[in-house]
Amino acid sequence: MANPLYDNLFGRHAGQTAPFLHLAEGAVVSYDAFLRLTARIAHALRGAGLAPGDRLAAQVEKSPEALAVYAACVQAGIVFLPLNTGYTGDELGYFVGDSGAKVLLCDGAKMGALQTVADQSGAILMTLNADGTGTLVDAAKDLPERFETAARGEDDLAAFLYTSGTTGRSKGAMLTQRNLLSNAEVLVESWRFTRDDVLLHALPIFHTHGLFVATNIILLAGGSMIFLPKFEQDRVIELLPRATSMMGVPTFYTRLLDDPRFTRDLVAHMRLFTSGSAPLLAETHVAFEERTGHRILERYGMTETNMNTSNPYEGARRAGTVGFPLPGVELKITDPQTGAEVPQGDIGIIEVRGPNVFAGYWNMPEKTAEELRANGFFITGDLGMIDDQGYVQIVGRNKDLIISGGYNIYPKEIELLLDEQPGVLESAVVGVPHPDFGETVVGFLVPQKGAVLDLDGIAGAAVKSLARFKHPRKLIVLEELPRNTMGKVQKNILRAEYSGLFASA
Ligand code: MLC
Ligand code: AMP
Fold first, then answer.
1. Residue 65: which CATH number?
2. How far apart, in Å, are the Cα atoms of 347 and each of 277, 339, 389?
């Protein structure tokens, strides 16, 4: 039975003893072993009642088993919905309820807290721990090592990834098999990945970058990955000599540059470093080349579109640019008001169209219509321009978004919470420069007349409801928020005034 994503990424490696994952202490998972585990998990998921098209939500630590859950979902036609391990129960409740996930897979340590979340939306709770144990793996233990791959077409959904919205409500981006497969094919070719590649994988696997860019590329090329649970600086430095390539967010590279052990010799053999998910400062690009002799290849993507543009593999990788549209991707710059294409060199909104562009937001036809034009162009909300040599530059955002260490944070979500706190009249949340995370969150609070704000209590409310990376790193009380003549809060003024807050952090 045909299932293009499974067949191309996974199925064609059946029986191959070549390494797929390199783990701690020299342990290796071969393609064959991985696919046998995948089949057993696919049987277990089927046994739990999941049929093709159903959703499985997973908030689990990075492990070979967690990756096999992704593969099993593809093989069984189940829509995979990975979730940031930092999300709180409150946040998870929304994702599970909105997606209608039939199974919520979580770490055993969170079972107590998440049982209510699962019960509220009628999902079955299963566990998968960081060490690969748990009720899912128990259920899969004695099941067959072959699974009849579910028939799927290129337009069938493969994954949901939730991305926050400017209104504070997260949107489930629906990604089809074609979206994922076409992008992986283009990237393998563009970045010259082969079966000889060993990718140092230190990204989380619940986002586009670590899952669909890094993992899918290696699967398609038939290479292998040094699979680290997270970005641990010591391990990265220790293992770089065994890798050919690494993908990272800019924070990876600024942290490495801060480390005297990160030398030219250490990475002389490397073939490729790529960066994305957040802007790479031109100064980081330059410092990296001075230190190592390598020019980082910066590319630009989104949850809704996978990868859109890339600097060239051969040819000039230009600092401060995200390169050219990838093969098959059309990109234009348009006027935010009229939607008309602007002259070359002018700044406008970046719009993209191609097989990489998602199928819309789950259960949100109006949001989909606002951002995805009938002619197929997706309005990214990023502001950019195309220079005289065709390189795309991202110059800002037309959306109220903070990117901290590669994680997206929508101020509205935090403002809604701050506004509810005792004594708060109104709030504004902005991103200010941060030496480690690129940007970080600062909350400005205006008290009601005569109220004295309990800042610790307010910070505590954020801790309870929101993932750690969204917590304001500072709360500042103001008498009033700066507004323009139309009454709109001028976040740019706050951002400029407080831009030095973390200068020496
Ligand atoms: C962790 N923390 C963060 C954070 N990550 N806070 C703000 N922003 C982040 N990104 C918290 C921790 O919980 C901790 O809290 C404190 O900050 C410092 O922890 P740390 O040890 O420095 O965290 P670390 O584990 O090192 O994480 C930093 C990181 C990680 C940069 C390595 O965030 C990361 O791997 N980011 C990658 C994100 C990513 O993959 N994005 C792709 C999105 S896809 P405390 O309480 O201890 O202080 C996409 C499309 C595309 O955007 O184009 O790719
Ligand atoms: P996400 O919704 O997490 O997929 O984040 C997508 C956003 O990350 C994009 O809309 C951009 O704003 C930003 N982004 C991704 N790659 C880059 C890059 N190389 N430079 C600047 N911003 C980027």
1. 3.40.50.980
2. 21, 13, 15
pLDDT, average across residues 13-28: 95
* Last-in-domain residue among 153, 181, 198: 153
Distance 452 CA to ligand 2 centre (A): 38
Which two three-digit tokens encode residue 89? Answer: 């129960």
Q: Is the CB of residue 123 less than 8 Å from the CB of residue 57?
A: yes
Q: Which of 104, 114, 167, 110 is nearest to 136 (CA)?
A: 104
How confident is the model at residue 169, as a pLDDT?
A: 80
Q: What is the pTM of this model?
A: 0.97
Distance 369 CA to ligand 2 centre (A): 21
- What pLDDT sits at residue 114? 96
Measured from the CA of 470, which atom of ligand 1 is nearest? 7
276 lines ligand 1 (CB under 6 A): yes
Q: Where do we find the tokens 């955002």?
A: 397
Is the confidence at residue 168, as pLDDT, over 70? no
48-68 per-residue burial string, b: 16 or more CB within 10 A, e: under 16? bebebebbbbbbbbbbbbbbb
Rounded to whole angstroms, how far apart are CA atoms 275 and 256? 13
Rounded to the nearest angstrom, the gap between the alpha carbon of residue 61 and the centroid of all alpha carbons in its chain is 15
Does any ligand 1 atom lie closer than 6 A to the CB of residue 279? no
Q: How many residues does the chain have?
A: 505
Neighbouring CB atoms inside 10 A of 237's CB total 16
Please report the atom of ligand 1 found closest to the CA of residue 249: 37
**Predicted confidence (pLDDT) at residue 505 exceeds the cutoff of 70:** no
- Which DSSP state fits 483? B
Map 263-296 to HEC letters: CHHHHCCCCEEEECCCCCCHHHHHHHHHHHCCCC
Total structural domains in the chain?
3
- Residue in 171, 277, 413 to alter for ligand 2 test, most ligand atoms within 8 A of Cβ: 277
343 and 425 together in one domain:
no
Q: What is the mean pLDDT of residues 136-152?
A: 98
Containing 496, the helix (H) or strand (E) segment is helix 491-497
What would the two tokens of residue 484 be?
A: 């323009």
Which pLDDT score is estimated for 1? 60
How far, in Å, from the CA of 44 to the mean position of ligand 1?
32
Give residue 74's domain range: 4-13+30-153
CA of 264 to the centre of ligand 1 (A): 26
Q: Is the CB of 472 within 6 Å of ligand 1?
A: no
Ligand that comes closest to the CA of residue 170: 2
Query: Which residue puts its alpha carbon closest to atom 19 of ligand 1?
Result: 469
Instruction: Give the domain-ending residue among 365, 400, 435.
Output: 400
Residue 116 to residues 42, 56, 93, 124, Cα–Cα distance (Å):
26, 17, 9, 11
